[in-house]
Structures are given as structure tokens and as C-alpha cells.
Amino acid sequence: MAEGPDDTVFEDCQFLTGSPQRFAVLAQLRERPARPTDLCDTVDATRTTIQRILAGCSERQWVVKRDGEYRLTVTGQRVLDQYTALMSEVERARAVGPLAVHLGSMAADLPAELLDPDCLTTSSEQNPLAAIDRFTDWLHEVDGDVRAISPIVTSVFNDVAVDLLETGTHIEFIIDHGVLERSASDFSDALERGVEHENIDTYVHDTPLDIGLALDRSRVCLAAYDDRNNVRAIAESDAKAVYNWAETVFDRYRARSQPLESVLSVQENKQ
Known about the structure:
CATH topology of the largest domain: Endonuclease, Chain A
Number of domains: 2
Largest sheet: 8 strands, mixed
Helix content: 40-55%
Low-confidence stretches: none
Strand content: 15-25%
Radius of gyration: 27 Å
Protein name: MarR family transcriptional regulator
CATH class of the largest domain: Alpha Beta
Structural class: alpha+beta
CATH architecture of the largest domain: 2-Layer Sandwich
Distance between the termini: 54 Å
Domain Methanogenesis regulatory protein FilR1 middle: 128-256
CATH superfamily of the largest domain: Endonuclease Chain A
Mean pLDDT: 92
Number of strands: 10
Organism: Haloarcula argentinensis
């Protein structure tokens, strides 16, 4: 059983997080030493509340009073810095949640750049197609050859593939047996193209896929799917570290996959 923080430390954390005014007071003192009256002008709180906050911070030795002014101690500065970082991380977690909750095992070594809210497109009740629409646009914008992993098959993706192949783009595509079965029943033309077209190499992964990934010459797009195989969020990046990571992931999945022709041949021999 994991041990929690010491009771006193926990109480100190509760004190700091108990109201936004406490953070505001410390943030103001980080800018410059101040008297209680000065803080009343910049913090939305009564003088009595300001005095209580200063007393609580003084008790914890986060602030010290000198010559009538309160100033942060070095430990108060560190506490404020860490709390600011925590709030930023909580804000990030809220924004990136729609991606993070559907990452599965891929989350273990995910580059931090893909957790930047600015690189995300997420679907919502108000805009349920936002992520899939942006993913489709990303595919239409590819530069150079494409490598992709997909746990689903749709007419939209098949149409994009046709457009790319017509421009001479080479595609390496990893699917799973579920996608293969649905392609055989619902998208036979696309399946035939995956076997016969000289510019597409299709592989079938040995276990079900739960994540989408696409790379072109310099960009990466990561797609997170829910239990019904709806795209819930995508993350885009052109950072070199992300690209190197995506190449490693793709190569790892391809190493556990068989060429589509081989899989179909085995299936035919069993019939």
C-alpha cells in the first residue's frame, strides 16, 4: 500500500490549494515585496483575508516580514514554482485527456511533444467529427511517401488512399485481421487494390490494433480511438524526436505483421 504525505505536509498543501487568493498573494510577492495594503489593491480579497493568508504563509515560513513588507523566502519561492508547474500540468491533463485515455500501451514512451494541447484536435458532443475531419485533412496534405497504422477501415480513408496512389505516393499500411475481414466483406475493391497496386504494401498485424499512426516525409499524426473505433483525438507534430519515435513504433508493428498477400494465401489454403 502506497504511503501518502505526512499529515502536516498534506495540511500545507490543502492550505495552498484552498483558495486562488493564496496563490495570488504568493504570486504578487514573487514580483516584489509588499505590505498588506498593497496586496489589497492587486488581489481580490479583503484586508482581513489578506492578513490571514500572510499569517498562514508566515507560519509555514514561505514568507517573512521585514521593514513592514512581506517577501517570499527561498522555500516559498520553490513551493510557488512547483505549484505553478502543477497547475500547468493539471491544465494540460484536462486538455489532453481525450487523447490520453485511449492511448493504451503506446502511452509508455510517448514523446512529450504529443501532449502539447496546441497540437491536438479533439472530438466533442458539439463537434463529434472534429478529429476524423482533421485526420482526413492531414492525409490530404501529405508530402512524400506515407506509412500508416489503422485499426479501422472506412470509405473516407479508402478514398484518400486512391487519391494518394494516383499522385504516385507510395504507401506502407498496417492493418489487423478485423480490418482485413471487414475489407473483404465491405470494401473488396480496396482490398484488391491493396494486393495488386505497385505503390502500396499492406501488412496484417498479428494482434488487434488500438491506435492509429501516420507519417509522411516530415510529419507525424497520432490518432486515438474509443472502444467503438471512433477517432476521439489526434495529435500532430513535426518535431524530430516525435518523428524518430514514430518510425520506431511503425517498424516495431511492421516486424509483427505479415504481408497481405501471405495472409490471404494462407486463408485460401485453409478453405
